[in-house]
Write a structure and sequence with these properties.
Jelly Rolls; 5-stranded mixed β-sheet; Peptidase_M12A; Peptidase_Metallo; globular; MetalloPept_cat_dom_sf; alpha/beta; 6 helices; M12 family metallopeptidase; 6-stranded mixed β-sheet
């Protein structure tokens, strides 16, 4: 496999992004999935997608006007193709909070993992802004992992050379950090995505000396065609799907709704109003294996809970103490690549 098919000269990229994946995501059991022809598929970290059609607020925690302008511009590359919107309003409780600490490298939490970070702390750091660095980190912020960790990549690392190179400036990584960020591959059961993409903005640039077979990657500074196709595809944020304004109304204590996942990758979004502080239960029923997420109050990005099989059979059930307000429920098939089927959904006060 040629990782630099156009034989462009390698541009050294000693600055690397820290792979900020929460431990729980590395331990989530998932069924294995393969792509067309049996080839593995990877890139997006499962369970970290924002609700399709979300507006993600962004707060700058420092940075010059020029640095902030670069971040805005490159975030716009993703917004142009994904069914997401970035709102740079510096809200105190913004979903994405960006620092510009030059001593802390470049990193970002993955997707909705940002909700696990205290509001007074950054969820992304742009310690350098070479090329497409900001776009790379915003890719993480909307749920994408590192392309070099794609299990279909086939990269043969020269481990001693990589460890020695990254031990020096500007990274100063110890061996454990290098193994986590460079050598560790995502398992097939924790990711969604595409076949290995050597042009991806999510791929590190590295020299031939870092591999046993002498291949190198280029510095990718714009979104690749596959990046754009994947982020706008059924598994991530397709624009063809309706936004929050089209969420289906659920009545608390009302009749159950009969719904259908008609196409692979389809997501159904519902909304209901809690009129008092109480315990509420949302569940699905039927033979279709669906997955549920609950967001709110008043926000389609504030994840409260998610569930797979706590209900009858393969159905999810979420029971939660809720304050008065509006809540959103996202339902999708567990198997986003091929799953379809009917189900019913209801919500009641307990």
């Amino acid at each position: 496999m040629s990782l630099n098919p156009e034989n462009r000269p390698f541009r050294p990229a000693a600055k690397c992004c820290y792979d900020f994946i929460l431990p729980r995501n590395l331990m989530r059991p998932r069924p294995q999935a393969v792509g067309v022809g049996g080839r593995l598929r990877a890139v997006g970290i499962r369970g970290t997608n924002w609700l399709n059609g979300s507006t993600l607020r962004v707060r700058f925690m420092g940075g010059t006007a020029a640095e902030q302008a670069v971040a805005r511009e490159q975030a716009g590359w993703w917004q142009a193709v994904a069914n997401l919107r970035f709102q740079f309003d510096n809200a105190p409780d913004a979903e994405i909070r960006i620092s510009f600490d030059a001593s802390d490298g470049a990193w970002s939490t993955i997707g909705t993992d940002a909700r696990s970070v205290p509001l007074n702390q950054a969820t992304m750091n742009l310690g350098f802004l070479d090329g497409g660095t900001a776009a790379h980190e915003f890719g993480h912020a909307i749920g994408l992992g590192h392309e070099h960790a794609n299990p279909d990549g086939g990269i043969q690392w020269n481990e001693p050379a990589v460890i020695a190179a990254l031990a020096g400036p500007p990274n100063f990584w110890d061996e454990a950090t290098v193994r986590h960020n460079v050598f560790k591959k995502y398992s097939v059961d924790q990711i969604n995505g595409t076949e290995f993409d050597p042009a991806s903005i999510m791929l590190y640039a590295f020299p031939a000396e870092w591999t046993l077979n002498g291949v190198a990657t280029q510095a990718n500074e714009t979104l690749s065609a596959l990046d754009k196709a994947f982020i706008s595809g059924a598994k991530m944020y397709p624009k063809a799907k309706p936004g929050m304004e089209a969420a289906i109304a659920l009545a608390v204590g009302g009749p159950r709704l009969e719904e259908n996942i008609g196409q692979p990758g389809e997501e159904d979004v519902f909304r209901f109003t809690a009129d008092r502080e109480a315990s509420y239960e949302i569940d699905t029923r039927g033979r279709t294996d669906v997955y549920m997420k609950l967001f709110g109050p008043g926000s389609p990005t504030a994840l409260i809970a998610e569930d797979d099989d706590s209900g009858y059979g393969l159905n999810p059930r979420i029971s939660a103490e809720l304050m008065p307000g509006e809540y959103f429920v996202q339902i999708r098939h567990y198997d986003r690549s091929s799953g379809t089927g009917r189900y019913t959904i209801g919500v009641k006060r307990r």
